Amino acid sequence: MTLLNRANNGHVPSMMVLWRTARVFCPTSRARLETLCRPRANAGDSRMMSYTFATWRALGLFEGDDEHVRLASPFDVIDQVDTEALRTAVLELLLRPENSPTLLDSDTSDEISRASDFVRVATWALAQDPYRLASSNQDRVLEQASAQGIALFKGDGRWVSFQEWAYFVGLGVMTRLGLVMNPARAVREVLSGRHALVALSAEEDVPLTTFLSDLAKALPVVDGGAYRVRLDDVFRAKNHSFAPHQLSPALALALLQLDHEGVIILSDRPGDVATRLSLLGRARAVVRTASHIRRGTPRLAHGVATHVEGGQA
């Protein structure tokens, strides 16, 4: 029951089939739900859906016993065709503390890992150079993580599975080079989604450090977040951590994209040294400095913004 175990249950489509079927037929029995979701071309093999159901029930998508399965909140009220709301809800579910009981222990058995493997890889990947990481294969990723003191995961296919989930929940975007870690969608959702978690004034500038502190509570995998802080303790021993005034390239990329879209407005006030941060880019080069932020008025419609996120790099 680990999210990235692609051979058994690490597929976005399998989860979506379960959820959409459950929206129509639940409450129902587990046996009936799995039968309804089983591929007709391979009707005799129910293991995939059984494994997938077990994983997502452990994560909190489903409630009840095997005879009375039902969707948990908020999945029980998301419209069956509202994939965007599902993406947001899945990320919130995966980031819950109870779903990462073994964040720094890749040797833990799959039965108790839950989403620990996904959260571990996401937290690590968001601390890397997203441009170099995009072209890395699994062997290179594991080598790089090991050099930084992180045992990332064990098992074949898990880097590919991670990329699929990272894109789905809005922590990365697909480009012609591969997946670029860019949590712009996730940041946009906690700012302006249906259940916004971070308040940001449109009337006055807020210190960027204050905003980032609030953001880290909503997205614990980014700079300053609870999961990231735990990895930073390991990074420091390998001289990989960022300075306090530096913003990681992945989060910097997200903020620069949202600034371009008009969702936020970044500004740099002369003399505000205490709140000024360096937004890093490729090879940790400073691409911009900023000290304050406020809510803007998006210049792009949602559909256009989504296209820009997934466009060619």
Jot down its keywords.
disordered C terminus, mainly alpha, single chain, 3-stranded antiparallel sheet, 313 residues
Number of beta-strand segments: 10
Q: What is the H/E order?
A: HHHEEHHHHHHEEHEHHEHEEEEH
Protein structure class: mainly alpha
Low-confidence stretches: 301-313
Number of helices: 14
The percent range for strand residues is 5-15%
Oligomer status = single chain
Helix content: 40-55%
Strands across the major sheet, in which order?
A: 5-10-7
Beginning-to-end CA distance, first to last residue? 35 Å
Shape from CA axes?
globular
The largest pleated sheet is described as:
3 strands, antiparallel
Count of the domains: 2
> What's the alpha carbon Rg, rounded to whole Å?
20 Å
Instruction: Provide the residue-averaged pLDDT.
Output: 89
Concise synopsis of the structure shown:
Helices cover 44% and strands 11% of the residues. It is mostly helical.
Explain the overall architecture.
This protein has 313 residues and is mostly helical. The protein folds into 2 domains: 70 residues; 231 residues, no CATH class. 44% of the residues lie in helices and 11% in strands. It has 14 helices and 10 strands. The strands form 4 sheets. It has a 3-stranded antiparallel β-sheet with strand order 5-10-7. The protein has a 3-stranded mixed β-sheet with strand order 6-8-9, with helices on one face. Strand 8 and strand 9 form a beta hairpin. Helix 10 packs across helix 13. The chain starts with 11 loop residues before the first helix and ends with a helix. The C terminus is likely disordered.
